Amino acid sequence: MIEIQNLTKRYGQILAVDNLNFTVEKGEILGFLGPNGAGKSTTMNMITGYLLQPRGL
């Protein structure tokens, strides 16, 4: 299981991810869809530890 709570990331004044919450159960498949700049890569980079997350997880 993966559980994300209150994940937030800012780049200076720019809010890249705002209070994201979700749970992925064992065996469940999840995809992130959205336009360029929506925070998909930033979210995955924080979950995997590539980027430090100032709040949440």
Give a written overview of the molecule.
The chain has 57 residues and is mostly beta strands. It has one domain (2-47). It is 14% helix and 37% strand. The protein is built from 1 helix and 2 strands. A two-stranded antiparallel ribbon has the order 1-2. A hairpin with a 2-residue loop joins strand 1 (2-11) and strand 2 (14-24). Keywords: ATP-binding, Nucleotide-binding, Transport. This is ABC transporter. Residues 17-51 form the ABC transporter domain. GO terms for molecular function: ATP binding; ATP hydrolysis activity. Belongs to the ABC transporter superfamily.
Largest sheet: 2 strands, antiparallel
The end-to-end distance, rounded to whole angstroms, is 13 Å
- Compute the number of helices: 1
| DSSP, total strands | 2
Average of per-residue pLDDT values = 90
Radius of gyration computed on alpha carbons: 11 Å
Low-confidence stretches: none
Name the helix and strand elements from N-terminus to C-terminus, one letter apiece. Answer: EEH
Number of domains: 1
In helices, the fraction of residues equals 10-25%
